[in-house]
Amino acid sequence: MISAVNIATTVTLALVLTLLTTSSCVTAQAEPAPTRAFQRPATVPHPESNPYTPGKFALGRKLFFDPRLSRDNDISCATCHNPAHGWEDGRALAVGSGQAVHERHSPTLENLAWAPALLWDGRAPTLESQVWFPLTAHDEMAQDVRELMAELGADQSYVEHFRDVFPERGISLITLSAAIATFEREIVSG
Ligand code: HEC
């Protein structure tokens, strides 16, 4: 005897089986074959508000490798972002001024010209605004920015370099950050 319930069960089972087979076929077919390997763009984008110049790049590089940027004049940006370690420091957690252990790992600085946001939680929107974080963080460079400006202002080679690159503006946190950001944008993977 064929009951209505039996018919309904058979039809439902047949439907489920059809759906399962069809959907697995669709998934298998939808897998796109990779066509080419990732390649970074050939030119580095610099923002209109902070255009590239060779002098600004050179100033940024000098500042990036200068330990005077830290409170105790012992740590430069390159201590934690070391080109010999892929622009990191080879440690699990960063170690800052006064041997303070940071709660986070120092990330590489490669290809940041294309980064939509910076820091592990994305709280810095641009490379220019990011510079303030490591300069002042107690577990990074622990610097007093006014003291740093006075220190750089007492060095004639910095006074001249800043004047050449920023004729109207001279040494300030903004010009220092602009120069470092220009240098950083040019750090790209091979
Ligand atoms: C004591 C080690 C240390 C020093 C010194 C240091 N950094 Fe970092 N840097 C870090 C750590 C740790 C992070 C991740 C921090 C976070 O996400 O909160 C970081 C993150 C960054 C990032 C974000 C990278 C990304 O992928 O989002 C940039 C850019 C950066 N640092 C640039 C600099 C510059 C410029 C200097 C010098 C002015 C500097 N750092 C000095 C440890 C350091």
TrEMBL record:
Pathway where this protein functions: One-carbon metabolism; methylamine degradation
Primary location group: periplasm
Keyword Cell membrane included in the entry's annotation: no
Localization per Swiss-Prot or TrEMBL: Periplasm
Pfam families for the chain: CCP_MauG (PF03150)
Coiled coil: none
UniProt KW keywords: Electron transport, Heme, Iron, Metal-binding, Oxidoreductase, Periplasm, Signal, Transport
MF (Gene Ontology): cytochrome-c peroxidase activity; electron transfer activity; heme binding; metal ion binding
Superkingdom classification of source: Bacteria
Domain Di-haem cytochrome c peroxidase: 56-189
Signal sequence segment: 1-28
InterPro entries given in the database record: Cyt_c-like_dom_sf (IPR036909), Cytochrome_c_Peroxidase/MauG (IPR051395), Di-haem_cyt_c_peroxidsae (IPR004852)
Entry annotated with the keyword Metal-binding: yes
GO-annotated cellular components: periplasmic space
PANTHER family in alphabetical order: BLL6722 PROTEIN, CYTOCHROME C PEROXIDASE-RELATED
UniProt function note: Involved in methylamine metabolism. Essential for the maturation of the beta subunit of MADH, presumably via a step in the biosynthesis of tryptophan tryptophylquinone (TTQ), the cofactor of MADH.
Protein name: Methylamine utilization protein MauG
